[in-house]
Amino acid sequence: MPHRHPRLVRWTLALAALAALPGCGTRTEVADRDVKGLVAAIQAANANPGSDVIHLAKGGLYLLRDAPRDATTLLPPITDDLRIEGNGAEIRRAVDGKRALLEVASGATVRVQSLALAEGSDGAIRNYGTLHLDAVRVTDNFGAGTTAIVLNHGTLEASDSEIAYNLLPAGHRDTGTIVNYGRLSLRNTGIHDNTALPGHPGLAVAGAVLNLGTVVTQDARIDGNRADDGELDDPLEFSAVLNLGNGHVEGDLPKAQVREAGMIAVAAR
């Protein structure tokens, strides 16, 4: 049996203990189609203070069939710092009922990379913290009575991403494919071929972004979205970015893709 130097043994034990300390962060590999493993990894990340990493299978598929009893999303709300390495995988809803897919809680910082989020039935994403989307596709989501496919109350940065082919039927509140109350940054990101339909006269609806916060764009592409019922033109209906209240847009988005509707909305109500 090989002899180990006592000092080397002590260093090895110290490093092992350090890795096990709360706050150091963990890396979890989740196998293809292992939804229970994905849910458990998020729950463990929430319980373990620190920056954790979840690594999904390359090109994997995760069909969400169950939801936490106390959540309105199919995955547990993320309450701590986390990076999800999607590796080209897809997360899709596969159950009846109204459920979004992903929620980031206030105070959490989450980075999602190379992942598709699809077929949410109550929108797709709700962000109250800081969320970075890198090469993420948000497609084929639905929201009957929902205000947004992507709802942002915090800081949301989308880079090299796509938000497309989502549907919001007529609702009872102001709606948009993205509804932004915080800070939304769009870099080399496409928002296209989404449909958001007005529910009642006097309600605002945006095919791309309904903005009540700050939008910053760089090489964003907004095209082919629908935000009307095909009847008379309504100043509160717009296919691109519709500003309400103190909504503000910075960056290189063409002026023709931004409509200032704050004063119109105030006058209408």
Strand-residue fraction?
A: 35-45%
Q: Give the end-to-end Cα distance, rounded to a whole number of Å.
A: 84 Å
Number of helices: 3
User: Runs with pLDDT <50, length 5+?
Assistant: 8-22, 265-269
What does this structure look like?
The chain is 13% helix and 41% strand. The chain has helices spanning 6-20, 35-47, 262-268, and strands at residues 27-30, 52-56, 61-64, 82-93, 102-104, 109-118, 125-127, 130-139, 148-152, 155-159, 162-164, 167-168, 175-180, 183-187, 190-192, 195-196, 205-211, 214-218, 221-223, 237-238, 241-243, 248-251, 258-260. The protein has a domain at 143-269. Mean pLDDT is 88; it is low at 8-22 and 265-269. It contains three helices and 23 strands. With 269 residues, the protein is mainly beta. Strands 1, 2, 3, 4, 6, 8, 10, 11, 14, 15, 18, 19 and 22 form a 13-stranded parallel β-sheet that branches. Strands 5, 7, 9, 13, 17, 20, 21 and 23 form an eight-stranded parallel β-sheet that branches. A two-stranded parallel sheet has the order 12-16.
